[in-house]
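Researcher: I'd like a structural prediction for the single chain below. Treat it as a standalone chain; there are no partners to consider.
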Amino acid sequence: MSGFELTGASSIRQSVGKARFTRREALSLGFCLCCLPATGLAAQAFALKDFGNGLFIREAPHEEATATNKGAIANIGFIVGRDSVLVIDPGGSAADGRWLHSEIRKRTSKPIRRVVMTHVHPDHCFGAAAFAGEQPEFIGHHALRPALDARGTYYHQRLAEVLGQENAGSLVYPTREIDDVAEIDLGDRLVRITAHRIAHTDCDLSMLDTSTGTLFPADLLFVGRIPSLDGSLPGWLAEAERLVKLGAARAVPGHGPAMVEFEPAMAIQRRYLTALQDETRAAIAEGIPIDEASRTVAASAAEGWALSEDYHSRNVIQAYKELEWE
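Model: Treating it as a single chain, here is the predicted structure.
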């Protein structure tokens, strides 16, 4: 597929067209700005980290997508099994995907049979086209396709403006959709994939490498960088509890260090999300207007997170819009 063709999304094309949106205008249309292009940010050098047992992770900087970093702003990687390779998010652009593909080929000639796209945000799925030549299963949540239909044109437009069309990439839909739990066998190595209810987004997947006990919660877990709410706040807290019950000792967050102790990291995120929920409910009960709430709610809980100035007020607005209808 060339360009950024969206089969069955003519209505979205008509509404988005060739318009250029400011960040405020995009928010008013309900688009998540998590991981979209910005200017003036320098990328840090990064490389794959080898955690042994065929597990490789790229730790990305806390940035938004820029021409310098080419959209490489999420933790991505791959697992090498006895028979095949599974990609853990294909990168944030075609350029990022090509980089990951080349890094895999430096380490193994085994076929890349699965590419998991953990959710709709561009830093986690826009590199998928770089793997099309391998003819893998592109695995996504059952709600990923409609999410791409609704947002893909806008996300691609913003990415292409900064990276150029060739580096931005083209849309890839899942060829296998997960609606509950599925197991993938890489050859004596099972990876369990779970489709979550609405949480960070409405199309989140997590993975558990059963051979090493490593959890891949993707953007259900942020470490260091402030969580970005694009789904349901109570839902995210519920799915976080569900993940904790798995008992995984270590995890690869969607953003942050390549590997963390899972429960302590999730506990920090849950404190922020809980404060966001509790204080938003209190503001609604007190009749505080949404604009004022966006400046005051959970302000202390947002301190210390990277990019909090960009995303915390948006989180409050998203939470307010959801919780005022409880």
